[in-house]
Specification:
The chain is mainly alpha-helical. Helix 1 packs antiparallel against helix 2 and helix 3 crosses helix 6. It has 7 helices and 3 strands; from the N terminus they run H-H-H-E-H-H-E-E-H-H.
């Protein structure tokens, strides 16, 4: 299968120094791959009307005590801006899955709390997301998936 982005990669090969070409290609290909992965996973979640990031908000809230996190903590955990978290929480709130509540001690802090309807919605979304992940990674053997995971962890932790 030919890659439609090969023209971009060839231009990079021509324009970068010999010392940087592999690094630049790796970064560009990683970004392209991330965009493709996000699109495919989001398509799988489209029947629920949520993006991958919104799904991640629900999963994070599911895994913490009281199913509540501050909006600041959510933005930090998802590596996104507070403004983006506001939009994500708004999107899942419209479905009745999450509510905003005041922090019990610090009234300046807003919490996002997962509601029972959100837990129920996650029960349906998780198999869809897992199925998408299995399909997306199927070209790689189990060993290749494990190796790639270790390499990505090493790279991410160095940044």
């Amino acid at each position: 299968m030919s890659d439609p982005r090969e023209a971009v990669y060839n231009q990079i090969r021509k324009s970068c120094s010999a010392e940087s070409v592999d690094s630049v290609l790796l970064c560009v290909k990683m970004l392209h791959t991330c965009n493709v992965l996000e699109g495919q996973i989001t398509r799988g979640l489209a029947e629920y009307g949520v993006s991958m990031q919104a799904f991640n908000v629900l999963c994070l809230l599911e895994d913490v005590p009281d199913h509540s996190l501050s909006l600041t903590d959510l933005s930090r955990l998802l590596f996104t801006t507070p403004a983006n978290i506001t939009g994500l929480v708004d999107s899942v709130s419209k479905h009745g899955w999450v509510e905003r509540v005041a922090h019990p001690v610090d009234r300046r802090v807003k919490l996002a709390r997962l509601l029972p309807a959100g837990l129920k919605a996650l029960e349906g979304m998780k198999p869809t997301q897992e199925g998408s992940s299995i399909q997306i990674t199927s070209p790689l053997s189990a060993r290749e998936q494990q190796t790639l995971t270790k390499l990505l962890d090493k790279w991410r932790l160095s940044l």
